[in-house]
Amino acid sequence: MNRYRNLALFVFLAAAWGASFMAIKAGLGTPADPGGFLETPVLFAAIRYDVAGVLMLGYAVYATDSPLPRGRDQWATVAVGSVLIMAGYHALLFIGETDPAVTSAAAAVIVSLSPLLTTGFARAFLPSERLAPAGLAGLLLGLAGVVVLSNPDPNDLLSGGAVAKLLIFGAATTFALGSVLTRRIDSDLPIETMEAWTMLGGALLMHVVSVALGESVSAVSWTTDAFLALGYLSVVASAVGFLVYFVLLDRLGPIEINLVSYVAPVFAALTGWLFLGELPTVHTVAGFALIFVGFLFLKRESLRRELPRLRRALH
After folding, report:
1. Distance between CA 256 and CA 130 in Å, rounded?
2. Quick check: helix, strand or coil at residue 113?
3. Reported confidence tier of residue 9, pLDDT bands at 50, 70, 90
4. Share of the chain residues as helix, strand and coil, in percent rounded to the nearest 5
5. Which ranges carry the EamA domain (predicted)?
6. What integer is the mean pLDDT of 229-244?
7. I need a labelling partner for 49 at 20 to 30 A (CA). Which of 10, 58, 228, 240 fits?
8. β-pair partners for 36
9. Maximum Cα–Cα distance for the chain, whole Å?
10. Cα–Cα distance between 74 and 5 in angstroms, integer?
11. What does the mean pLDDT of the chain come to?
């Protein structure tokens, strides 16, 4: 039963984070349709986690007996999460996505390097998390599926917006490293408390960066899209999404949970079809198939154990 619960949570997280790319774009606005947080991307990310952090702190006070971190290991976990998973990842991602030369397809390919980066960091910090050759093949197939699904223009990937793309790559790198180091520290801090304080710490750091970049609240255009995007990103993608993420990080480890960055583009494509009328293409179907085969490679042992149970249940 726990396996199916973990699968359901994983799918929910992929859906929530897949739709968040659309919400980020809506909240930022575009040069052709100015509005929202286009001129203040780091402030956008900071306010997102102000709201999410306060919500989670209230939940931590309600749900746990330890709403405040104690001891070196617990505060180290909060520091790693604040700097790398929250502030580092989101500040770099939001700044990178403001560059009109960076398409959503190019950004998706870059962010989807996270599982491979996680595998590399795990080899250095978590020897028990290393993948067998078949598992590594599954990772590469999943990455190929994301590339096919996104169907990026090679010229767009290799030219224009070079600095922005390096920033997005830096975002994927900090997220991967933060996931591994959080697992390595392995403090007994309740997940709700860890999430609340890492969000608040990350928000504080992003406000500092925002001020250093000269961003100002007066430059924000509070459009309907900006409000809706901020609400979705704060509550669904952040407060609820990261609660699920940290639960699965503890249960599955950093390599498996960061595969969510492979599945998220699938839901981005589906939501684009459902809400924006973007019809699936041959690349969409082929990408889905490659991602599915990659998961079969990665989860081959679990599937081998589960198939006899399913056969017995069906007979």
Report:
1. 11
2. coil
3. very high
4. 80, 0, 20
5. 9-150, 166-298
6. 94
7. 10
8. 221
9. 66
10. 27
11. 81
Residues in the chain: 315
Helices (H), 151-281: 154-158, 162-185, 191-212, 224-231, 241-252, 254-257, 260-276
Which residues lie below 8 Å from residue 282, measured CB to CB, with a gap of 6+? Answer: none
Residue whose token pair is 């709201």 = 51
Q: Are 177 and 57 in contact (CB under 8 A)?
A: no
**Alpha-carbon dihedral angle through residues 97, 201, 192, 108, given to the nearest 10 degrees:** 10
CA atoms within 13 A on the CB side of 251: 16
Element (H, E) at 76: helix 71-80
Q: Give the pLDDT band (50/70/90) at residue 156.
A: low
Give me the pLDDT at residue 78, please. Answer: 95
**In Å, what is the CA distance from 61 to each residue of 34, 65, 278?**
40, 7, 43
The model's pTM: 0.79
Chain-centroid distance of CA 100 in Å reads 21
3-state secondary structure of 296: helix
Closest CA to 116 of 254, 284, 212: 254
Residue 36 phi, psi dihedral angles, 5° rounding: 70, -135
Q: Which residue has the higher pLDDT, 61 or 165?
A: 61
